[in-house]
Amino acid sequence: xxxxxxxxxxLGALIFLFGLAVSAAMFSRSQVAGDQMNLLGLGWRLAxxxxxxxxxxxxxxxxxxxxxxxxxxxxxxxxxxxHHRSGSLLILLTHVLAYLLLDRxxxxxxxxxxxxxxxxxxxxxxxxxxxxxxxxxPNYLFLIGALHLWTAYRMRREARFWPSFWHILTIGLGxxxxxxxxxxxxxxxxxxxxxxxxxxxGALIAASALVVASLVPWAxxxxxxxxxxxxxxxxxxxxxxxxxLRAAVYWVRYASFALAGELYTLDFGSLVGRAAQARLELPIxxxxxxxYVGTLAVSLWANVLLWKxxxxxxxxxxxxxxxxxxxxxxxxxxxxxxxxxxxxxxVTVSRWYGFSLFHVAVLPLVLAGGRWLADPGLAIRARLxxxxxxxxxxxxxxxxxxxxxxxxxxxxxxxxAAGLPNLRRDHPxxxxxxxxxxxxxTVDDPDGWWIQTVRAPSGPEPPAAN
Length: 466
Prior knowledge:
Strand order of the largest sheet: 1-2
Helix content: 55-70%
Distance between the termini: 75 Å
Structural class: mainly alpha
Largest sheet: 2 strands, antiparallel
Shape: globular
Number of helices: 19
């Protein structure tokens, strides 16, 4: 093994260890907001009350996530460790497993330098890092998506039972954890239609039967209370700018530093003081805008490059295609699947709707970078750009660790998704799960919010504050 290959392996290990260290530090600082309280409520009822709720968390489309798998993935860690961060630890482990699966797969499909690019653009990606260490349904999508691609690769040449079984089961159970697993189902249909994978019929039947069986308690619950079904009644259908175009823009943004507003709501007041934080707000905003626009343009160009000269890409995959051609086809059809499913979206597309395809969305920039690195005239500049990108990723990761909304108590409020409102009543899990120790919650507020996944408080309302 030559020295270049050894140095690349060491660099890859260093990138992995740094990303893991940042996620571990984020885990130790992770906070609880409204969505986390709802998830913990499901886990609490299963782990400590013996009540296995047949639905998941409330969805942005109204109603609740179908199925009862969410209660298990939240409740099981609580049985092992009575702390609100037990689920966050599981999230962190799923992200590690997702990366190891993807890296092992891409080792067969990409060159060594392209694997390093993927490590930077995926593992050190601020989008992923921010969502790697706090409890939230969409944060499971990174592993779900990785399993989907892993099994699809094993089905590319022939219909095999176990890859097909796990592929279908991943989608069916994944929807019960995070409803935005749904794009993967459309991907599978398109991949099968265009012969990018072969599905074993027996495995399809067996996995589908298990999924249907797991949904029986939920179906019974829906029949008794139709209000738990996610209807999306408040949305608008076929509003292109609100659905398809937004989904396409998020696809391009995932590989860039064009982060969502919540992620750029950075507050370092606990470290530097409130006065210094006020002075930092303008520089942070300017830097964020420069990174947003500049890197979004690079990612957009890489996506255009993927489609440029692609020929009749819509034709069925040729039997003699290379693994790299297979991967490029998977990226293109995944993008098409994303557009198709969100054309039908009844609600505004949010940043997490495409997380199940996050790993695929960064590949256009990885593939473009590989072309630049292979060009003798561009290789030196491409390596310099990759190093600069990596260092910016490091800086943004550290900023999110210290000042990101889900990793600090108080400070500048974000969009509202990363904040826990006052509660109408107290609940035993606030103390038992050390939520009050991490960041105190105001309770007994007559105008406060209540957790949607636990029983409403009974008895007289607390007196209003004078």
